[in-house]
Specification:
By secondary structure, the protein is an alpha/beta fold. 41% of the residues lie in helices and 19% in strands. The strands form five sheets. A ten-stranded mixed β-sheet has the order 5-6-4-1-7-8-9-12-11-10, sandwiched between helices. The protein has a seven-stranded mixed β-sheet with strand order 22-21-20-19-27-28-29, with helices on both faces. α18 (511-521) packs parallel to α24 (701-719). It is elongated. The chain binds adenosine-5'-diphosphate-glucose. Residues 33-36, 38-39, 160-161, 230, 267-269, 302, 304, 345-346, 351, 368-373, 376 line the site of adenosine-5'-diphosphate-glucose (ADQ).
Amino acid sequence: MPELIVVANRLPVEPVYVDGDPDQEITGWRLAPGGLVSALESVFRTEEAIWVGAGSELLDVDHGNLHLETVSVDARDMHDYYEGFSNSAIWPLYHDAVVTPVYHRHQFRAYERVNKAFASRVAEIAQPKATVWVHDYQLQLVPSMLREMRPDLSIGFFLHIPFPPSALFAQLPWRRQILEGLLGADLIGFHTHDDARQFVYSCERSLGLAAYEGTMRVNNRRVGVGAFPIGIDAEGFSATAATPHVLERARQLRAEMGSPTTVLLGVDRLDYTKGIDIRLKAFAEVLQDERLDAATTVFVQVAVPSRENISQYQQIRDDIEMLVGRFNGSLATFGATPIHYLRRVLEREELIALYLATDIMLVTPLRDGMNLVAKEYVACRNDDTGALVLSEFTGAAQELAQAWLVNPYDTSGVSEAIVAAAQAPDDERQRRMTAMRSTVFATTAQTWAREFLTALRTGIASAHASVEDDRDQASIPLEQLASSQHLLVCVDYDGTISNIVTDPDAARPVPEAVEALEMLRDVPNTSVAVVSGRALDNLRTVSAMPDGIHLVGSHGAEVDVPLELDPSQRRLLDQCTAAASELVAQVPGAFIEAKPGSIAIHVRQCEPKAGANLIRHIVMGPGRYPGVLGRHGKEVIELSVAHAQKADAVRALRQRFDASTVLFVGDDLTDESVFADLSGQDVGIKVGSGESAALWRVESPQDVALLLQRLAQERSTFAV
Ligand code: ADQ
């Protein structure tokens, strides 16, 4: 297994000082709080890795299987990069601009410098061909910077926060740089398909790039884009929640709250995206309207201070504390304070005891990449009790559909959901919780990391991860082809597996397409053929196809062996050639390609009008000789005396191999005869634009190569 390097803004641990005083000596290290660390921590209990994060250069610590490496950043740059560009521009922009993002050029320059410092550090320490996994919005330029320094590395990027709609992203003055920075990765992961799609749309809009089945082509490289929803260490949370002292602590907590009938809970970083103020208002409404009893209902809000140097964070903290004071002032009675507000970090066991003491968990962000708190609460409810009120605008809502889902902008809706959850019959709550628990235990932090790293290392994302463009027609049924009994793969040559070039003899196949065809050739019960309008001899020379790949030339007249004309066909061909030569001689750029059973008159190098004119004269002249078949192609007309069509050749091959299914890929008019002839489980794919009888379509020979590679990989798997 190649070396694994995780790169994140922060290190996963923080120092513990004597007496908690940062001026005193460091006595040890503990896990730093936050979503990214809590997800990855459980992964590195089993896998060794290097973790690169910002910090003092003096640091040289190992933490279990993790070796820590630091990037030292100058204090001023750190401020402009972290509080500045990362958290005052990107964070609000990516969270639907719930507060107005601010764009300062000097902050972006600091962001570039710090990203460069991270990339350089990784380039310095990474072993050849190491796997590098870059995390989150603070380091979006690292993938391309690192690729430039170390093209041998395999680079993955994961965004822990949402990706904004393309119309919103477009306001970012450095949108190109950010997209190009990310596209330096081999695989870019998001929490949801929606996020992945938004990213693809922004690449289309700002860079003119297109994605096909979760892959983008960037400077001849393939970049995978997919959805990898993060999970938690569900077993770990559940096991701690089952220990007697944690259960006892949960009972104690409830007693300390005055043994209320209903306990509600919110646990968040103190952030304006988390919707803490909304749930406070909704809760207060419920008590004011006496839908729940103020004397027997308690709402606990635990909030960890976060990014306190940024003014909006000071503002949201003030707002929340004002609301808590105001509502408690009007709703409290002696011995019953409805809102308990704790601004601090809780130890893991205390947090879990609190989850257990809670009847209704409130998770109401205005926007959240995933939200791990919702999953932690569910994982802790070993007896299937409890209820979750969850914002639709979290990644978690896409998985935990059995929660009481709410629009956090609608205070009445949130308060109604609180009442509904409080009054729901036990069996309904249990049914919902059981379903959510099975999701949380099925997709954990470990499965998330494994899926992402496997996709990065193999280049194949699971069907579940890959983004399908929902505006596209149905995706190509690759699995159906991969699992067919005997598959015959036929591809046209020019414009299908080789790019169109001016000199026909210079048309070489896309190397990845050849590799894929070779791989398919080696899979049992699979036959492969290149079916071209070119003369067989010429096709053999130009394509240089490996042995075992069948070659069909002259539109199907030559299947693996050269064509032999009878004397009358020979005479007719000579007459056509003589007549066409006279016409061609008058038009600069036109030329004749002689083939065993035909001649092709090419006009692609002619002045367009003159070319079109020449074709008309050919059609009216030798094209009308009895026994001659005229066939139009792209800027070419072909006159043949041996009347084969590509469809005849494909039919013959199908019979010869007793193929159950045919895949045919082509771009030219002459390929239409095959598309029209396909049936049943066969698949026809047209390359490029224009009318076609093919049901599926891709854009270019590079797409064809990609498709063939996928097919080869899938069919090899089926064959095992
Ligand atoms: P965060 O915005 O930090 O994460 P979240 O996913 O909820 O949000 O993770 C917070 C973590 O911190 C949880 O593990 C929680 O238990 C812990 N935590 C919160 N408050 C705490 C407290 N007072 N005491 C102790 N622990 C506390 C970012 C994105 C999310 C995404 C994660 C992971 O914003 O959308 O889910 O990364 O990708």
